[in-house]
Amino acid sequence: MPPEAAPKITEIEIADEMRDSFMTFAMSVIIARALPDVRDGLKPAQRRILYAMHELRLGPTARFSKCAGVVGETMKKFHPHGEMVIYPTLTRMAQDFNLRYPLVEGHGNFGSVDGDPPAAMRYTEARLSHLGDEMMADIEKDTVDFRDNFDQSTREPTVLPGRFPNLLCNGSSGIAVAMATNLPPHNLGEVCDALTLLIDHPAASLQEVMKVLPGPDFPTGGLILGADGIREAFETGRGSVTMQARAGIEPLEGGKHAIIVTELPYMVNKAQLVEHIAELHRAKRIEGMSDLRDESDRKGMRVVIELRRDADPNVMLTRLYKHTRMRTTFGVNAVVLVDGVPRTLGIVDMLRHFITHRQEVLTRRSHFELARAQERAHVLEGYRIALRHLDDVIELIRKSKSPETARGGLMQRFKMSERQAQAVLELMLQRLTNLEREKIQEEYRELIQRIAYLEDLLANPRKILALVRDELAELKTKYADARRTRLRAEGPEEISIEDLIAEEDVVVTVTRDGYVKRLPLDTYRTQGRGGKGIIALTPKEQDTVDQLFIASTHHTLLCFTNRGRVYRLRVHEIPQASRQARGTAIINLIQIEPGEQVTATRTVREFSPDEFLVMATKRGVIKKTPLAKYDTRLKGGIIAIKLAQGDELGWVKITDGSRDITLATRQGQAIRFSEKQVRPTGRVAAGVRGIRLRERDEVVGMEIVRKDHDLLVATRLGYGKRTAFDEYRTKGRGGLGVRTLDVTAKNGPLVEMKAVEADDEVLVITSQGQIIRQRVGTIRQTGRSAQGVHLIRLDEGDTVSGLARVVQKEEQDDVKARQNAEPPMTPAAASKRPEPAPRKAKASQRAKRAAPAKPAARGAGKRAKRQAAKPKPKRR
Fold first, then answer.
1. CATH number for the segment(s) 22-174
2. pLDDT at 828 over 60
């Protein structure tokens, strides 16, 4: 071997080589495997799978395709690391209990919250979800950079355009070398609001951002305890968020109780949790259980822990939170790749990086579309030249010996470019008709406008930002949903009483002297119309029932007084009393002033900024104010409306701002007008005129018009009638209205009204404490001027004082969305209710029994009494 061919040996320190090799390996793991990119929130494996599905045209409207084919395509072209890496990544992107917004839509067994593994990839099928498809939006328009794949046979994107803010909405987790990442998911609507806030106000502080993005929103729901951990994580990128299962206590027969778990903290395995609780019971670390079973089904989660009669359910629930993963923490560690470098970012920085990414994507898309539009306009300009000199062009082409000669002639004679001349030569003869020529002119005009728009867009960065904001608004409208995880301001050390009380419907009564009580709804059984009713309270010292309504124990009760003030009270804080008891003085629960009376109440779950409180006074004044302006914890109450001298606040409703309102007066007048005629005002402002009153008349009720509902009115002497809302034409506010009931000495003046349906049930209560529960269908529907029929048989000196509508089971889904006065259905209440078909059948039987008999001939009753009094002849 010649000396110059001898191998060269370089001596290095083994420590240096180990350090350099380990750093190379570590950076490869960090960048190419474990950490997500701040722009699209994806790791390389996830990005490659989504792009492979896009290349296979597996969009949200395509047919499902075998996961084995997706895995094979990904492994063949982009990610040659084996199916044991690719398939689990694919299935996780389709699991709705892992991702808040799945990017893949799965068909088949993709695992469960119990830890069950997905089926083999030869059995399952998948396609991109709608949001997964949004990650690919405009990828063909040179919006992102591409690079060669591992064998340089094709190219792959370095990042996805990502119209959907995936990093914040779905979070991420991964373990690299010497670092890890763990990002929680958030609500899409709240993330879009936060991005819009930073676009409009780039210098917005973290506190302002947290007003619209208050915290994580996990796919499994549950509770988040305390805001300190969220604030720390949002500010520094590191923090600890305490999560807790949602559980309630339900009473059972025999004086026993059961703990019902309906939602678990994020990433908690339900099957392992149930097994752990059983192990704690066997080890006698948790005593008092009599049964443990999992009743979960496709409709939702339900783990039942039955307790012995002597066990305290509150203590048992506290022990479960302490010893099991029903209360756990989520450690936020927001490490992401920024320009290929790992960095720990706060929430505001991540939002800004996404905005910058979308700006770049839209700028590149605009450049691409501008180039295409200019190229097409250039061709159309050649067409226009040819059309203006059509005969000369045709003659030149006919005389040319070859296409090259014709192309050169066109370029020389008509000053066309080579591209224009070639396009003219390729022009089909049918494009020379008048109709096609007009289409060419129209297309050219549209392209000129499009080019001007794109050039203006690229010249003004603020317009690019406005386009980003418009896309976010569209994304929110199409895909945003309600928050699943509830946020509690109290930290994990404090156990809220609300979380230890079963959510159930209760009847709340308020007397004229200011006494309040609650009792279960099933205390009052359904009776027929015109019955005697049962005692609701025992009157003392001439006290009478003034209000009666139905609420949930988990709602907040807003108490509005006749002086225009509002006080807060939790429904479960109202003491429960017997049916005959008068209750507790409301002055012991809220700090009302002497002489002040509660005249209206509303129950709300949360103070939504999209809802309004509509108020009406006895003098016909109406006012509308956003519900969020009444969110206060002051025990002394706040001003709700500014009243005129001698006027009183009487009715309050919660609306969405687009309803029709009906007011009724004591003398039988009613008016219907659109809520939009009442502009929103501040909390301490006065209202506007809703109805013009005659002398000695006053308003007795206000209702929100509902589709397919009737207006049920009740009079002082026990009469009532229902009339379709369609008979009340919508008019301008401030008029006298139309007659809704013929007030006579027989039926008495109006006392109250309700919007009802035929299948509803109502409670009628009298001033002496009598209550009757009856189905609305037994009350005959009549015109506006009728006198009505008997609702309740009154004793001498007794009068009707209240009317309440009973909420039915099928209304609960709509009620949750509106967060109106009617409470949501709890699992306990749902399990106690009969099935829909038998319930309707029984209701029909009750209606038949309660239906009034056909009218007999005049004098038939007297003849029947005389015949009954005659002695029957003896049989021979």
1. 3.90.199.10
2. no
Q: Which residues contact 522 (CB under 8 A, 6 or more apart)?
A: 832
Q: Tokens at residue 279, please?
A: 């192990």
Q: Specify the pLDDT at position 61.
A: 94
What burial class does residue 192 get, using C-beta atoms within 10 Å of its C-beta: 0-12 exposed, 13-18 middle, 19+ buried?
buried
Q: What pLDDT band is residue 825 in, cutting at 50, 70 and 90? A: very low
Q: Is the pLDDT of residue 542 over 70?
A: no
Q: In angstroms, what CA-CA distances link 643 with 191, 476, 559, 615, 631?
A: 41, 40, 17, 11, 21
Q: In Å, how far are 167, 172, 234 from 480, measured between CA atoms?
A: 16, 20, 22
Quote the percentage of the chain above a pLDDT of 90.
41
- Residues with catalytic function: 123
Please, how many CA atoms are within 13 Å of residue 649, restricted to the half-sphere of its CB?
A: 27
Q: Say whether domain 351-479 belongs to CATH 3.40.50.300.
A: no
CA distance 830 to 834: 8
Tokens of 554: 């988990």
Q: Quick check: 246 and 223 in contact, CB under 8 A?
A: yes
Predicted pLDDT of residue 598: 82
CATH number of 246-325: 3.30.1360.40
- Cα separation, 458 vs 366, whole angstroms: 7
Where are the domains positioned within the chain?
22-174, 246-325, 351-479, 503-849
**Is 853's pLDDT higher than 60?**
no
Q: Calculate mean pLDDT across residues 4-17.
A: 76
